[in-house]
Specification:
CATH architecture: Up-down Bundle
Strand content: under 5%
Number of strands: 0
Order of helices and strands: HHHHHHHH
Shape: globular
Largest sheet: none
Structural class: mainly alpha
Helix content: 55-70%
Number of domains: 1
Distance between the termini: 32 Å
Radius of gyration: 17 Å
Length: 187
């Protein structure tokens, strides 16, 4: 379900969900609801996997459940991607806070280059050393290309908090990144 941090960037919803489909899903039409959640799943999975790491699948499932339960509260179809991203981010932070992180096996079948695998492992280990809050602002800023003000809205914190978390996250990532042996990194 979830794709790792190193895969495609989830900048915007990669599918086009029509207002009609959304309204049918909100009215409880099972097929429309199934199609809507199926189309949201990869997008939500990438965000959750980037923030909650090992628990990304759980965060994605919880996110889809929240979307399912609260779909009738969404009034503007154009806001679906933003709404789903907000729920995914908050749920990922919540789950990441409660579960200790551990390096799991990466999908090495997708990696054709040993250096790329080493790089993925180093990036993952570096991200694991950041707090869930720092991972969230880094992912939203770097992978979602969101402005600090929008991140603040999504996380329900002040723009100043986002700015300081982002600065700390980048500094911490840089420090942790430099601590890994450079002999494993590609030239």
């Amino acid at each position: 379900m979830t794709e790792r941090i190193n895969n495609a960037r989830p900048r915007r919803l990669p599918i086009d969900i029509s207002a009609d489909m959304l309204h049918r899903a909100q009215r409880g039409e099972v097929l429309a609801l199934h199609e809507l959640l199926q189309q949201l799943e990869p997008y939500v999975g990438r965000i959750c996997g980037s923030i909650a790491l090992d628990e990304g699948e759980d965060a994605a499932q919880e996110t889809l459940l929240i979307i399912f339960k609260n779909l009738e509260t969404l009034h503007e179809p154009k806001a679906l991607a933003s709404w789903a991203r907000t729920i995914a981010t908050r749920e990922s932070i919540r789950i990441a806070r409660r579960i200790p992180l551990a390096i799991d096996q990466l999908d090495i079948a997708d990696v054709s280059d040993v250096h790329e695998l080493d790089l993925r492992i180093d990036v993952r280990r570096t991200l694991e050393r950041l707090s869930p809050e720092h991972r969230a602002v880094l992912v939203l800023s770097s992978f979602e290309d969101m402005a600090e003000a929008r991140i603040a809205e999504h996380l329900d914190v002040s723009p100043g908090t986002v700015k300081s978390r982002l600065s700390r996250a980048r500094n911490r990532f840089r420090e942790e990144w430099r601590s890994w042996p450079t002999s494993r990194r590609p030239a």
